[in-house]
Amino acid sequence: MTGSANEVPLVGDGVTPGIVRIGDTVRRPVRPFTATVQAYLAHLHAAGFTGAPVPLGFDEQGRETLSFVSGDVPREPLPPEATGEDVLAALARLVRDLHDAAEGWQPPPDAVWGGNPRATEPPELVSHRDYCPGNVVFRTGLPAALIDFDLARPTTRLYDIANALYWWAPLLDPLDRTPALVEADIPGRVAVFAEAYRMTASQRHALVPVAEQMIRRFHVSTREKAETDPVFGRMWDAGAKDRLPRAEGWITQAGPSITARLTGTAVVSAAETATAPGQSPA
After folding, report:
1. Would residue 73 count as lying in a domain?
2. How far apart, in whole angstroms, are the C-alpha atoms of residue 124 and residue 157?
3. Which of 89, 197, 242, 259 makes a 20 to 30 Å CA pair with 187?
4. How far are the Cα atoms of 114, 115, 126, 151, 241 from residue 32, in angstroms, in the given order?
5. Burial of 83 by CB count in 10 Å (0-12 exposed, 13-18 middle, 19+ buried)?
6. How far apart, in Å, do the first and last CA atoms of the chain sit?
7. Which residues pair with 66 in a beta bridge?
8. Rounded to two decimals, what is the model's pTM?
9. Could you give the 3-state DSSP secondary structure of residue 66?
């Protein structure tokens, strides 16, 4: 099937143009990392993970070919029905299943990756690293699959968890959240995700510092890309230039409460820290 009449454009976030559906397949322009991602997806399916497209090689026009993943994809701002704790728990289980399937896979020696190569920790596995709403497919009201693995690369479980929480807790200033989550208990929502993922004690203690570094990198890299890439320039002007600095400030302020909820420890306020033993706060 090569005629344009058979092609249905798939328009998502606009970062990757030229994606079309033909029947039960998706055709995408080939990128430098396409062959590596196809090898990764093939491993995931061989390991029993069904929540990702099946790689089908290349078509007669040289385009990457994948199976079409059926379901519903929410858009931002998230609708109320996509903000429940049951959604968070289902996403956490999906991410955990992905991580377990990816564990131990060795990328080919000539692997090429997309996305931002800046990393501060030795990688543990290859994972998705971009859980924005447009990349999460819902079925029967819950996350069931992931699409668009363009930013997949070697990473850590904790970075991937922080990325999912950034979008879905979310780790954002109230000004930048969907209306249904403006007044949400974000530490509580993070704890729901942690329980469903089965985060370890060390992961719970280390989450906030990883999230702080990630959000800072988001800010810096988006600003840099906006100077040369028109797509990122539009994203920057459309709100990222304000949202990302606010997210940095918010996670610094809310971080102690999130860690306390995850670890079962008490939050020590700035006033308590500044008060000498035996003295009362002014």
Report:
1. no
2. 7
3. 242
4. 8, 11, 17, 12, 29
5. buried
6. 76
7. 26, 55
8. 0.91
9. strand
Q: How far apart are CA 57 and CA 65, in angstroms?
A: 5
Q: Which of 184, 179, 52, 33 is nearest to 114 (CA)?
A: 33
Rounded Cα distance, 150 and 18, in Å: 14
Domain-located, residue 248: yes
Q: Torsion-angle region of residue 204: left (phi > 0), alpha (psi -120 to 50) or beta?
A: alpha
Kindly state whether residues 88 and 63 are assigned to the same domain: no
- Smallest Cα–Cα separation from 160: which of 101, 111, 108? 101
pLDDT in tens, the chain (282 residues): 444 668 999 876 556 789 999 999 999 999 999 999 999 999 999 999 999 999 999 999 999 999 999 999 998 899 999 999 999 999 999 999 999 999 999 999 999 999 777 656 789 999 999 999 999 999 999 999 999 999 999 999 999 999 999 999 999 999 999 999 999 999 999 999 999 999 999 999 999 999 999 999 999 998 998 899 887 888 899 889 999 999 999 999 999 999 999 999 877 544 343 343 444 443
Question: Which domain does 10 fall in, by range?
Answer: 4-67
Distance of CA 102 to the CA centre of its chain: 16
User: Are 159 and 251 members of one domain?
Assistant: yes
Residues 195 and 235 in one domain: yes
Neighbours of 227 (CB within 10 A): 9
Amino acid residing at 3: G
- Of 32, 5, 238, the closest CA to residue 115 belongs to 32
Q: Is residue 29 part of a domain?
A: yes
